[in-house]
């Protein structure tokens, strides 16, 4: 227990860093995922191709490699940002591909007649998607989106290897101070459990309120 009590501020900073990474990267992933899902079902061929390439490349690229590409590659092109922001970009873009596919699967569950009826009333593609299709698709994608964001929270551990303050990175100073590695990782695991259970609880509430009855 002294591993936690003696280093409460260190664990607190790590937990706060993980929460911030998770929240900011989740917001970016949801926005990009929505945009790419819209592209993938758009009537414009170039948008569909762009969305397909985005999803295919990111889903088949290891996250660690993407971190290297963003944190070490972008500065070579004059893009210099704090490491925390680079980590948010890497996590958000990577997760957006999975959010996109979850949303697209939900869109595909909406009967095509719904979209045809909306278009027959003179609604544009954007209006049909935002006002008719997505509100119905949202109900069926709550569980997979929640699972994807839980995975994002755990993937944030990679950021610690790139000088970003987060929960897993706390084991390094603790190890240098001579604390038990086993207990250090146990309390780190408890921290991740708090984050993931919080996300799960939020999406359980959303599912009970708006999810599709089973």
Keywords:
mainly alpha, 214 residues, elongated, transmembrane helix, MetI-like, Amino acid ABC transporter permease
What is the topology?
Elements (H helix, E strand, L loop, with lengths): L1 H4 L2 H33 L4 H15 L3 H11 L9 H27 L2 H9 L4 H31 L15 H6 L4 H30 L4
Helix pairs in contact: 2-3, 2-5, 2-7, 2-9, 3-5, 4-5, 5-7, 6-7, 7-9
Task: Note down, in words, how this protein is organized.
- InterPro entries: AA_ABC_transptr_permease_3TM (IPR010065), ArtM/GltK/GlnP/TcyL/YhdX-like (IPR043429), MetI-like (IPR000515), MetI-like_sf (IPR035906).
- Keywords: Amino-acid transport, Cell membrane, Membrane, Transmembrane, Transmembrane helix, Transport.
- The protein is mostly helical.
- It is 78% helix and 0% strand.
- The protein contains nine helices and no strands.
- The chain has helices spanning 2-5, 8-40, 45-59, 63-73, 83-109, 112-120, 125-155, 171-176, 181-210.
- α2 runs antiparallel to α7 (125-155), α3 packs across α5 (83-109) and α4 (63-73) crosses α5 (83-109).
